[in-house]
What we know:
Number of strands: 12
Shape: globular
Strand content: 5-15%
Number of helices: 18
Distance between the termini: 37 Å
Structural class: alpha+beta
Radius of gyration: 23 Å
Amino acid sequence: MTAATPLSELFEFDDSYARAVPSLSVAWKAAAFPAPRLLVLNEELAAELGVDAEALCGPAGVALLVGQEVPEGVTTVAQAYAGHQFGTYVPRLGDGRALLLGEVVDTADRRRDLHLKGAGRTPFARGGDGKAAVGPMLREYVMGEAMHALGIPTTRALAVLATGEQIARETLLPGALLVRVAASHLRVGTFQYVAATGDSDVLRALADHAIARHHPDALEDPNPYLGLYRRVVDVQADLIARWMLVGFIHGVMNTDNMTISGETIDYGPCAFVDAFDPATKFSSIDHRGRYAYGNQPRIAQWNLARLGETLLPLIDPDTDAAVEAASAQLTRFAERYEAAWQEGLAAKFGLPEPDPELTRAFLELLHVEKADFTQAFRWLSAQLRGTPARDRFLDREAFDAWSVRWEAALGPDRAAVADAMDRVNPVYIPRNHKVEEALDAATAGDLAPLHRLLDVLARPFDERPGLQEYAEPGGGPHVTYCGT
């Protein structure tokens, strides 16, 4: 294909969601942008979607990616949802600055949404301008790619485009638009929105669509809607455990930011733990630490309880029976999460089986010492290769005592154990200061640090010469902002 590729040949769009539940989206068009241009294009993801990356770089591709021109018959829509934001229910949120461009079936036969973020005000806008700045949109691109490389289910960015305009935040900033790819944008908040209307037909249609799209094996259960709930509980328990195992803090775990698919979505004031402390938070708006690192499992279960409430009429017409059945599934969250967490920790420590007491003792030592969470596990694998880790700790005797117990629990082939540990313990994560450096440079027009950072994060488990600065934590406190 060439730069002159017709719009109809770039993607073959579908609109199964709008057809299944037409009352949950509103036809809307993206704002007009004066001079849109690509800042970064995810060529690997383009290949997954079966589209020619070169064609996306052409005028037709850019016009499509910012929603200015769409193929005949395609209608972009803003989706409706509600949500609990920091524990407070908001009955009408929705895509205030976003549009669903359409659904595509990728080369692996997976249905995926193409979604525009920063596309201008929609009927769901809540006082904002509907626009986005370069920094926050590139942050979502970086974080999504980092999480993907770490093996964590996530939405990903196909592209970030400059819009050619300045938008007002604390200062004037260059505008941008993100093109996001997701398994879907079905959220806990989507179900909350429908449940509040009391329309059981729409609720059933939404649940049926969610089952067909994400959890079709729920149809094999005696009660498919209870089966849907169980599967969402399970995928979210697994997802949150994966977050915790790499020190990821989402920062804004509102119910409208929790997917039915089990993908991480909406990277706003997110960051990674440096010095290990369960109370760590970075978000400027999380004043009480509701979404701090150590609170994430509890908040996830709370969010899932809200989902369960919406499904009660479908689970059983007898409310008491429905509550009992849903509560039993919600209880699974703690069990499923703990199992995933302990199995993940065993792998991180190179243990043949989980040892909660041993691993908890090490995490407590990290907390007391304010040691770096990510590096600490690489120190341990290095010790198995002959480089003692004790000098990394202030209380060497405490580490030595723990280390004796740890090494006694390992298999005999220490080199193999160390290699296995290195396959699950990253060298490189999106270090908060390196992310900020790259975003600041990009906002000023220099994309080189961003591309360098993306290259490092694409292979997080492979230690490479000359990249030590990307493995080190930054100094001083770090604060993140939602970017809206």
